[in-house]
TrEMBL record:
The lineage of its organism: Bacteria, Bacillati, Actinomycetota, Actinomycetes, Micrococcales. Residues 6-185 form the Formyl transferase N-terminal domain. This is Phosphoribosylglycinamide formyltransferase. N(1)-(5-phospho-beta-D-ribosyl)glycinamide binds at G15, S16, N17. (6R)-10-formyltetrahydrofolate binds at R68, M93, R94, I95, L96, N110. It catalyses: N(1)-(5-phospho-beta-D-ribosyl)glycinamide + (6R)-10-formyltetrahydrofolate = N(2)-formyl-N(1)-(5-phospho-beta-D-ribosyl)glycinamide + (6S)-5,6,7,8-tetrahydrofolate + H(+). Pfam families: Formyl_trans_N. PANTHER family: PHOSPHORIBOSYLGLYCINAMIDE FORMYLTRANSFERASE (PTHR43369:SF2). It is an enzyme of class 2 (transferase). It comes from Actinotalea lenta. The gene is purN. Pathway: Purine metabolism; IMP biosynthesis via de novo pathway; N(2)-formyl-N(1)-(5-phospho-D-ribosyl)glycinamide from N(1)-(5-phospho-D-ribosyl)glycinamide (10-formyl THF route): step 1/1. It comes from the Bacteria.
Amino acid sequence: MPHDARLVVLVSGAGSNLAALLAAQQDPAYPARVVAVVSDRPDAGGLDVARAAGVATVVVRPADFADRAAWDAALARAVGALDPAWVVSAGFMRILGAPFLAQHGGRVLNTHPALLPSFPGAHAVRDALEHGVAVTGCTLHLIDEGVDTGPILAQRAVDVLPDDDESSLHERIKVAERAMLVETVAQVVRRGVAVDGRRARIGR
């Protein structure tokens, strides 16, 4: 199967999910390829991961724009110029606003280190530990106007161990998250996504 679905990956951090996608696309049967990586931070480790793989990189820094709306519009233009079939937000630590969603809405996937709707936001692993849950995990969902509120496409459960701290739990969640992302992106590319209100399913 040819690499015919173009992915643009948004990163703010080290890029472990990006690395998992890049590894997966080495298999000729994988139905997508990362054509570019876009970051809000010029020092994001994910940019180095992309460059090492020969993938184009773009930086759109909020500090270079007059306000949030101007940055969001610039991000939308930068991603649009790359002509993606899907956009993957993988550790991108900014909320995508109306200008971006107006152009790319319905085609943006986001990973989150908790079983949504529990523990949305930037501190999901810490919040799960503080709440004392026995099981947490990760979610892949479509992005909408809210914070981690979009329709859910996939989830994986991860047990919380008695001696877990935030770092150890997060590392195990990341392992599950990478596998979930690679598998679900392939399913989405091959079969499409149907959304009915809060419900999303793979396959039209």
